[in-house]
Amino acid sequence: MVWSGTLGGFFASLLRCRAGLFETDNAMARKKTTWMPQIGGLATYIGRASKLAKGGYNVRVVAESCADRMLVEAVGRSGAPVRFAVKRENLAPLQPGLFD
Predict the structure, then answer these.
(1) DSSP class of residue 91?
(2) pTM higher than 0.85 for the full model?
(3) What does each C-alpha distance from 46 to 49, 67, 70, 72, 94 come to in angstroms?
(4) Which of 37, 74, 83, 100 is most exposed, with the fewest beta carbons within 10 Å of its own?
(5) Which of 95, 97, 91 is nearest to 34 (CA)?
């Protein structure tokens, strides 16, 4: 937030910031994805455990949950299917040619 030197300018910039009108640095802005995974389709989950699996996990989308989350199913360590909820922004489409 930029302070213009007067108290009125400070509050004006604060109000613009709260209203969403404050300009943010594009380098710091998060990439917004508009991709919506299909229920029953395959996707790549890239989240906290991406260090273990470098390319992410291949998951099957089971259902849509609340708060912009998706219920997905993956293969666990013992080979049994595991279901968990992930944020939709952490799902990406499969790379081309993976399951073609």
Answers:
(1) E
(2) no
(3) 7, 18, 13, 12, 11
(4) 100
(5) 91
Type of residue at 81:
P
Helices (H), ranges, 5-95: 7-18
Bridge partners of residue 45, in order along the sequence = 57, 91
Q: Positive or negative CA dihedral for 23, 91, 61, 65?
A: negative
Residue in the structure block whose two tokens are 């910031």 = 17
**Which amino acid type is present at position 100?**
D
Task: Give dist(CA 25, CA 3) in Å, integer.
Answer: 16
